[in-house]
Specification:
254 residues, alpha/beta, six-stranded parallel β-sheet, 11 helices, 6 strands, 11% strand
Length: 254
């Protein structure tokens, strides 16, 4: 039996925060936002982060479209510093910033610590594992950045919420992914950093989980303990995988 490994992408494999910060800093300079907004980068980005997180929650809940998310995360941030979010000029600027973010962001290649070594280890054992990415991100960003970072070659499947019609943590996302792989939950392992989106979503679908938790966070109050928990992705490989009996039993035989 080949074990099906379903990896979240952002903040699990791809260094979303580091790559995004480099992109935002360039955007801040390219679009002259210090002059336009009258604040420094750190102030602008902190307000953007709060607004973007709230809009992503609305998108996951189905109350905001992808198109509006792409524009409003910038227009509302600009509005927080005195711009008119509804003016044609600011809407056009926000759309240009959205396009720039996708184009520049997909050029970034930073991965989470140990991600490449882990993927190479699994890549040498393709006869033992089926590799998949599971992500809520947009296709125009997720697919190119995997290719640019050189990790697309490791995966047999890439499951996007846009394609499946459901978003993590909805169990229907996981059910649809498993159906396309012709797999059952007991043959699978979900690896992700977001407890609510990845871990609880997998729990609800009956799939064992690995919570990638490098910062040592605790589950939300009342949240069940994940099947496994790691702080370094390299704990998934070789002798270090002794902490993951499912890996050992399923695929670490010589």
């Amino acid at each position: 039996m080949r074990l099906h490994l379903l990896f979240d992408l952002d903040r699990t494999l791809w260094d979303f925060d580091g790559n995004a910060d480099r992109t935002y800093r360039r955007m801040f300079d390219v679009f002259g936002l210090e002059r336009l907004c009258g604040v420094d980068y750190e102030t602008f980005h902190e307000r953007y982060r709060v607004i973007n997180d709230a809009l992503w929650d609305a998108y996951r809940n189905g109350t905001l479209s992808k198109e509006l998310l792409s524009i409003r995360r910038f227009s509302l941030t600009l509005a927080a510093f005195g711009c008119d979010a509804e003016s044609p000029e600011i809407v056009r600027l926000s759309r240009r910033m959205g396009d720039y973010y996708v184009e520049e962001g997909t050029r970034q290649t930073g991965l989470m610590p140990g991600a490449r070594e882990m993927l190479e280890w699994f890549g040498e054992r393709r006869d033992r594992f089926v590799m998949a990415v599971i992500t809520n991100g947009f296709s125009e960003a997720q697919l190119p950045k995997m290719k640019t970072a050189g990790i697309d070659k490791y995966f047999d499947y890439v499951f996007l919420s846009e394609d499946l019609g459901y978003m993590k943590p909805d169990r229907r996302f996981f059910d649809a992914a498993l159906s396309k792989m012709n797999a059952v939950p007991e043959q699978c392992l979900v690896i992700g950093d977001d407890y609510k989106v990845d871990i609880q979503g997998a729990m609800n679908a009956g799939i064992p989980q690995v919570w990638y938790n490098p910062c040592g966070l605790t589950p939300p109050e009342g949240g069940p303990k994940p099947t496994y928990e790691i702080k370094d992705l390299r704990e998934m490989t070789g002798a270090q995988a002794s902490c993951l009996p499912l890996l050992q039993a399923g695929s670490l035989r010589s």
